[in-house]
Amino acid sequence: MMHNSNKNQKIGVIGAGSWGTALANLLAEKQYAVDLWAYESEVKQDILEYGENKLFLPGVKLSGNIVPTNDIESLVRSNSILLIVVPSHTMRMVTTRISEFISPETIIITASKGIEDGTYLTMMGVICESIPFLNEEHIVVLSGPSFAREVAQKVPTAISVASKNIKVATRIQHIFATDYFRVYVNDDPIGLEIGGAVKNVIAIAAGFVDGMNLGLNTRAALITRGLAEIRRLGMRMGANPHTFAGLSGVGDLILTCTGDLSRNYTVGKQLGQGMTIGQIQDKRLTIAEGVRNTKSVYNLARKLNIELPIINEVYRALYENSTPANAIARLMTRRLGHETSELE
Q1: 302 with 233: CB under 8 angstroms?
Q2: Among 2, 63, 200, 268, which is most exposed with the fewest C-beta within 10 angstroms?
Q3: Is the pTM of this model over 0.85?
Q4: Would residue 338 count as lying in a domain?
Q5: How many angstroms separate the CA atoms of 36 and 241, rounded?
Q6: What domain range is 250 assigned to?
Q7: CA angle, corner 196, sides to 202 and 16, nearest 5?
Q8: Rg of the chain over CA atoms, in angstroms?
Q9: Are residues 206 and 219 in contact, defined by beta-carbon separation less than 8 angstroms?
Q10: Model confidence pLDDT, tens digit, residues 285-302
């Protein structure tokens, strides 16, 4: 299945965590020449010496078509397509830095999920603000139910890519598609971004349920009502409601709320078992995105005056010393309402 038509095509990947590395490897195995920028010099060294990202994706042999680098400027100058996969709280810092030497013609794909604290912007919003001369139609969002390790192991996976310009999204669809990585196009980038950011917070609540051994009924109810909250916020932000029934909505939510590979779910589960957030974070190399995003989603909902009960309870458990048991009790005894109302 390998075609050599991609031989001279170059793609720059910014961010060599597990997801950035897995996507870089997917592209490299399709014969793209991939420059991979790592923040850590040891990651660059390990990829050069061992062909492996021992820190973030241990045990996965990487393609020789990946060239690791710590020089972000030369990577940005020499690639017309950039895939950015950095933690959401570092997106502004990284994009402000590259705005000095990026070409206005560059296509940026963001695979980072989150809402920026304080500005309440999605990652696409941050990119538009920090690189104002970039055409918004050149920004593509990549999202969907995809654990990095499983993609690296070539487990059949399906995701979505979205841009305001469907032609640009279709071009990116073809770049990423393989026989184990199925890519759908969408023209609702904000919907993909809201689904990707908020599901991390719901996954913490799903972890509460499993940590407390509450059973499958409870988890199914929580996932379903969590989806209602994602949809409510997304529609207020101008998203297409159908997006939330798709891969980047319900698909990513199911994965993140049920999978032991999910860092957010694991944090919630440990909280449900009685650990404190301080104890959990002391043990981890990378902080679960949902912990930060709980604060930004909670504040965004308050700013927009939207009722998001599950988000509120996760916020109280993480930031106000509430307990998962109290959270579940309050959710179960809320005022009774209509299932499909946008307010319940």
Answers
A1: no
A2: 2
A3: yes
A4: no
A5: 35
A6: 191-332
A7: 115
A8: 20
A9: yes
A10: 667 889 999 999 999 999
